[in-house]
Fold this sequence. Notes:
Chain A is mostly helical. Helices cover 74% and strands 0% of the residues of chain A. The interface between A and B is medium-sized, with 22 and 27 residues.
Amino acid sequence: MGKPCYFALFDLQPSFELDRDQLATKYRELARETHPDRFAAESDQRQREAVERSADLNEAYQTLRNPTSRARYLLSLDGTELPLEATVQDTEFLFQQLQWREELEALQDGADMDGIASFKARLTQAQNELHDAFSSAWADTTRRPDTERLVRRMQFLDKLAAQVRQLEERLDD
Amino acid sequence: MALLQIAEPGQSPKPHQRRLAVGIDLGTTNSLVAAVRSGVAEALADDSGAVILPSVVRYLAERTEVGASAKDAASADPFNTMTSVKRLMGRGMGDITRMAGQLPYRFSAGDSGMPFIETAQGPKSPVEVSADILRTLRERAEATLGGELVGAVITVPAYFDDAQRQATKDAAQIAGLNVLRLLNEPTAAAVAYGLDRGAEGIVAIYDLGGGTFDISILRLSKGVFEVLATGGDTALGGDDFDHAVAGWIAAQAGLGEQLDAGQWRTLMQQACAAKERLSRDAEVVIRFGDWQGCLTRQVLNELIGPFVARSLKACRRAMRDAEVDAQEISAVVMVGGSTRVPHVREQVASLFGREPLTDIDPDKVVAIGAAIQAETLAGNNRDGEELLLLDVIPLSLGLETMGGLMEKVIPRNTTIPVARAQEFTTYKDGQTAIMIHVLQGERELVADCRSLARFELRGIPPMVAGAAKVRVTFQVDADGLLQVSAREVASGVQASVQVKPSYGLSDAEIARMLEDSFRSADVDKSARALREQQVDARRLIEAVESALAADGDRLLDQEEREAIEDQLDRLRGLLDSSDAIAIEQQAKTVTQITDAFAARRMNATVSAALSGRRVNDIED
């Protein structure tokens, strides 16, 4: 790719665990140096470069800030590019997925706001548990296949969370 | 003769030569211009001391009026007087037809499907009307600051889409303004508020203006203003309150569809005045024609309730997007004239669980924030500790895919600048071209999103279906404007567009408007020259007349007097002509022929003074 490692850009070691506040502080510091506003009085060439560097920085920050994209990025550094869509052969998780989906449909039909709130809380908890699981699997190089499976699970829960948000929006109408 | 300035080599003669830059709030109802002077950002006033310029333009056959005088004529001359034109910026004929009924204009379609309004000066696009407002502000700023501007930061509603932003930029170009940056209005307000109060933490800016509504949630941290999420509605504002009140009056008074455009404008002005009164009083008596009635604050609240509710819904969505709870927000700042309405304040307070801040001038705060940013972009703050604004795109950007679906490439609330690529492939064997349809919006179906541009990537070498790899790159700059390029990876075939929304102005239309504005600038200039000559000539005639009346008999012989009166008559005859040069020439002749007379009067005055008599005595 020719682009610097996102972790190195933020003075970090490649790792799933990171301090989000520290990342945000470093991001603001770097944004100050690269933002096109700083080059407003300079040549078009310099300004274009600033736009590109800023866009790269924003991309790096977004990737590291979100746990799922951070996990995917770690895998890609390791040589595993996960396709976004893939058939999942994770029967244990498939059952759980079905359960989540059915529950969400029932909440939608009942327009149950309290139910949605508690569903969201459980979803967040499940996401946190997945993050912990990924973190320990990542630390153990013999468990690479596990990490891929966990990232797919994280992606599924992200999608579910997006559906919950859409549902909330629809019910807000 | 001026002395030459000599500077040391490598040192500029004026070490702090400032580049003049302004911030402009181009509002639906009112517009302002502000600048940083001696370190303080302030709104600039016109000759009469007024800071606010009503965003109203009247097109008469001979001239164009902008501001208060145009506003006063809105009811008398509804078809030639443009109000709230910001609501039409970047809109196509389709949108206008939907808004019809609210708009008293006669529309026609331009070459590119953009609506034009028929006026006494011919068809005018909303962009040209905005350009006339911007030009007035530019001239005010140049007169006040005493020089040409290097550029301006112009504010736009955060929720403006690409077309509306592009239309604003086009208007600035026609007005002869260099746009340093299009800045989101709530972000500008946050800058003014944040710097003024030294605020840190998460703040919400609730900006309800005449025609647009924005909500932005920002994190303020050591001079960095990071927008976390923004939301809003570009067709929601105080105008809607006025319409609701006007509709209520019309219904109460039993007036149906028979109101003409002028009466409707009068009714709207009454409705607006009643709404404003109800911000102070519990009820107000309204008279319209033979009808008289009482509007209470409670009825007003019911009328405007649905609009306020829509704004609150956008607030909740922005909080979800920003992933913050109401409790985490440390301040809610109210911006825009419509936040003076008590019902709005109450509802916002109850949503956020805290009293909103209303002590900052809601009319000026946006222009002031823009002026501060303009100062930075003009390069006048070089101390390093300058502010930094990290803004977002308000609406998702994407492409049309199979089945008329919109695939998002950059989701809403992504920090700008941003560049993102997506790969597509051919779906037929031997396919050599691919159509790229750029969209903006949140809905799944293409038909529900705004179409920004269509272009074709041609010359792809024939391959089996699915073998070609077309990489489409979206790049959004710091103004929030999009550029799209496409490239077939194997062959390197490339195509790119600067997205010019399909229903925006064509380049030919912009070129024509630019020409018109130069021509009208010439006309304006010669019209001003003529008026100045006429004023000077009238002054001269009066002066000579009174001198003749006072001393003509005493100091002039018959022949001299006749010669003067003869030339004076000629000047009088020229006063109503439109020939500035002839007036100037004749005025000179009058001055020359009265020279001797003036000298004698001066001598008489002096000798009278020397002999102890007062001038008044002589003149008697």
